[in-house]
Design brief:
Layout (H helix, E strand, L loop, with lengths): L10 H13 L5 H5 L8 E4 L16 E4 L1 H7 L10 H15 L5
Antiparallel strand pairs: 1-2
The chain binds zinc ion (2 copies).
Length: about 100
């Protein structure tokens, strides 16, 4: 059930992404702020693409980022602290409890 925004496949994005990585010297900007040098392989939208589609290719809204920092920026993608996925998990548990082995 992975949803990939078709925008990320566009030529414009690939070009823009490349530019930002070069601008940032392929270093994670978030790690850099903490004084750590980490290779970035992702370009992150500081203001989320979904909310600010007009900033999709705005270099000021983009920063190079490493996977670790990126996961922190998008907790909903991993096992973050957001409340939403918990509801789902609980529903699964309830289902399991409602189906005891009968024989
Ligand atoms: Zn980082
Ligand atoms: Zn991102």
């Amino acid at each position: 059930m992975k949803q990939v925004n078709p925008f990320y496949k566009s030529k414009e994005w690939r070009k823009c992404r490349e530019k930002v990585l070069i601008r940032d010297h392929y270093l994670c900007q978030q790690c850099l702020r903490k004084g750590i040098l980490t290779t970035a392989n992702t370009v992150h939208h500081i203001k989320p693409l979904e909310d600010y589609p007009e900033l999709a290719l705005d270099e000021d809204n983009l920063e190079s980022i490493c996977p670790t920092c990126h996961n922190k920026e998008h907790p909903e993608k991993g096992r973050g602290k957001k409340v939403e996925p918990q509801r789902k998990r609980r529903a699964t548990v309830m289902k399991a409890e409602a189906n005891p082995e009968r024989w």
